[in-house]
Design a protein that fits this description.
Layout lengths: L1 H6 L2 H10 L7 H8 L5 H17 L5 H4 L6 H6 L3 H13 L4 E5 L5 H8 L3 E6 L2 H13 L6 E5 L12 E4 L4 E2 L2 E2 L10 H9 L3 E6 L13 E7 L2 E9 L6 E6 L3 E4 L14 E5 L1 H5 L3 H8 L2 E2 L7 E3 L8 E11 L2 H11 L1 E8 L6 H8 L5 E10 L2 E9 L11
Parallel strand pairs: 1-2, 1-4, 2-3, 4-7, 8-10, 16-17
Antiparallel strand pairs: 5-6, 7-9, 8-9, 10-11, 12-14, 12-15, 13-14, 15-18, 17-18
Amino acid sequence: MNDLDALLTPEGRALLHEVRDTAPADELAVATRLRREHPADLVSAALGQARLRQRAAAKFAAEDAQRMFFTPNGVEQSTRATVAGHRARRFQELGVTSVADLCCGIGGDAIALARAGIRVLAVDRDPLTAAVARANADALGLAELIEVREADVTEVDVSSYDAVFVDPARRGGRGRIFDPEAYSPPLSWAVRTALAAPRAALKVAPGIPHEAVPAEAEAEWISDGGDVKEAVLWFGTDPGAVRATLLPGPRTLLSRGLPDPEVRSVGRYLYEPDGAVIRAHLVAEVAEEVGGGLVDETIAYVTSDELRPTGYASAYEITDQLHFSVKRLKALLREREVGVLTVKKRGSAVEPEELRRKVKPQGPNAATVFLTRVAGAPTMLIGRPAQRGASWGTRG
C-alpha cells in the first residue's frame, strides 16, 4: 500500500515515466543514478512497477499498460483485455447497464465493462488489490463508471444490479486449484449468486468437466490467438447451450448436439480444431463442416479428402503417413531437405523437442509432423499448412 501511495504522488509518477523503458540489464545502473535524488524505496517501487507494466503489455494494450498499476498476482491472474472486451460486449448485447464485478482483481474486467458504457461495482477483499483497481479506474478516466469497494464478496448486496460477474480465485499457495469447490469463493456459492441475479457470468478454468456445468447455465469456452484462456458459465441466456468462441473475431461455434464423427482413413487433409472447440466438445461440428471424420476415436484430429474453409480449425495437406519410426522420419526429412520442423502431438508420449533433437532437421524447406494414433496405432503424419492448388511429396 505504501509503495502504491508513493507512486501516485507527482514525484512517483515522474519516476514511473522516467524508468518506463528500462531494460532489465540496465536496472542497477538506473537505480544507482536515481537514488542520488530520490528515496531508495521509491526508486525500487518505480522500477518494480515498470517491470510489471512491461509484462502486462502482453495482456493489455501497451498504451493502457503504461498508465495502469499492477501487482505480480494481478498481472498473472488478470483477464486478457481482448477476452474481457468480448465478455463486456456480450453483457452490452444482453441489455445490461450495471454489473457487480465480484473478485475484481486489479480491474481488468471492470475496465472493459466501463468502456462498454456499463456501470460497475468492483469488489475485492484484498486492500492492495482494491486500491490498485481504484487507481486503474482513475488512470484510464473511468472513475465515474467504476466504484471500487474493499469487501468480502459474500457479504455484498448485489440486488440492485442488472448482472453479476464472478471471477473466483483459482490459485492457492500451492499453485492452480482444480477443484471448483476449492475456488475462493467456491463455485457453488457463485452459482447460487448467479441464479439470484437477472443475468450472470462466472469465469471458471477451461478444464472444468462438462458434468460440473449447472443445467441452468450456458457454457462458453474462449480462445485468443489459438490459446484457450477460460470458460464462462452464463446465466439468464440460453440454458444448456454450449459454444466455442475464437478471438480475434469473434467467431462462435454453437453445439448442434451431433453424434461423434465416424473414424476413417487419413485423407489428403488434416484439420486441427482450435483448443476452445475441443474443450467445448464441438469436434463433431467441425467434422461436419469440412466433410470429414476422425483419424482415431480418441483423437481430436479430423481428416478429409477435400480442403474446405473453416474458421474453427487449421488445415494441413498430408503428404506422408508412416508408422512411428525416428529412423524413417529422419531419412524422409533429409530427402526433402527439411530444416524447419514443427512437431505437434496428440495421443503420443513422445516429446516434440526430443524428436527434433534426434532427427536433426537441416535444409531450406519446412514441414509439420503430427505424432498421433491412427486406428489405435502410433503414427506420424507429415505435411504442411494447406494452400489451394499446392501439393508436394507422396503419401507413403
